Amino acid sequence: ENGQANTLSGLGEVYHRNSKDRQAKLSYTRAHEIYSRTGDENGQANALYCLGKVCRWKFGWDDRATSFYTQAWEIYLRIADENGQANALYELGEVYRTRSKYDQATSSYNQAYRIYSRIGDEHGQTNALYGMAQVAKALGPVRYAHPDIPDLEETSMIYAHLGNSCNEREVSWALSSLRLIL
């Protein structure tokens, strides 16, 4: 049965990449059902995570996406999959940020950042910090002050190292804005 679920997950990915998101949602849902029946928690979490992405990006169902990401995060936490935890937390941060729930977004990004740092995922670290920079930009330099903000200097250097000048500029902007209030 897990072979069938793996195939359905693969089909979901193909459908999603080809903008056939109703089919993707159906494939991921069926895969999740099978993984749940067979007790494959990693498969369940991955299917839920993918359902979150489809719901958020293609349907704008942020409440559903939040539910799927939260369920995926809880499973990743239970099975000690730190990369999965960080990815789910990052996506939760994205949903919260786009819904102007800035404290929740910053908390999710910060948790993701700490995990990405622990496992050595520089790309994940910079993405989480970039999300925090976006929050800072949305709130403006005078209003943004959050105890969870990590070192944006480090982020700017990592982006420079990775050759991502667009995000490096964004983080530099946030860093200069934060210096005004810190």
Folded structure, characterized:
- The chain has helices at 2-17, 21-38, 41-59, 62-78, 82-98, 102-119, 122-139, 152-162, 165-179.
- 82% of the residues lie in helices and 0% in strands.
- Mean pLDDT is 84; it is low at 177-182.
- It has 9 helices and no strands.
- The protein is mostly helical.
Name the descriptors:
182 residues, mainly alpha, 9 helices, disordered C terminus
Summary of the model, kept short:
Helix content is 82%, strand content 0%.
Shape: globular
Helix content: over 70%
The radius of gyration over CA amounts to 17 Å
- Quaternary organization: single chain
Helix-and-strand structural type: mainly alpha
How would the blueprint of this fold be written?
Layout: H1 2-17, H2 21-38, H3 41-59, H4 62-78, H5 82-98, H6 102-119, H7 122-139, H8 152-162, H9 165-179
Helix pairs in contact: 1-2, 1-3, 2-3, 3-4, 3-5, 4-5, 5-6, 5-7, 6-7, 7-8, 7-9, 8-9
